[in-house]
Amino acid sequence: MTVLPYNADKSKKEQVAEMFNNISAKYDFLNRFLSVGIDIIWRKKALNFLKNDNPQKILDIATGTADFALEAHRKFPEAEIIGVDISAGMLAKGTEKIKKRKLEQKIMLQLGDSERLLFEDNTFDAVIVAFGVRNFENLEKGLADMLRVLKPKGKAVILEFSKPKKTPIRELYNFYFKNILPNIGKIISKDARAYTYLPESVEVFPEGKDFTDILEKIGYKNVSCKPLSFGISSVYVGQK
What we know:
This protein is 45% helix and 21% strand. By secondary structure, it is of the alpha/beta class. Helix 1 packs across helix 6 (169-189), helix 2 crosses helix 3 (67-75) and helix 6 runs antiparallel to helix 7.
């Protein structure tokens, strides 16, 4: 089942770009506020899966405002990092943050389609993505292109929302995600659909074993899944 941000007469890709352009000004604030800052911890934990690899060239897919790219720089300060996103509005905010930290020589952002990457085969030591694959128009195509640009033995690290399974976390999570989060998001972002689309897209995303099965089908090796924060999010790792 495909969930669309606006149910308009446009492709999912066009609608996702429009949605993130609409909320880009308030995106970072809402991220911190709605997650109580725990998304920062999730990114740090996701990057720990690369600590023994010491990647020198990293691609951050769906980089948005560059939070994951900046965290990757803190973890691997010598690495060259390229961030790709389809939203010009989000990239503008990310560029501001990079310039403020004077990291233009280390982190480069570019407008691009995550399902049609403009890089040669076997280019990157690591491909990372936080909360982005859920928005792919064609999930398998996007994951396959990530694998294509990875070097042999390179790793993909994917951080994505999942659904808690245990009571009472599951019930609390569902209430917050479906009732409180959309209303706060709507008031602050002024976009009525963006934060309703979020729980809807998480609901239909193939999490856990369903997602690792897709990774293995595409050709990733040594695939693993690590739930975080009682299963509210999960880190998936696959190797070329």
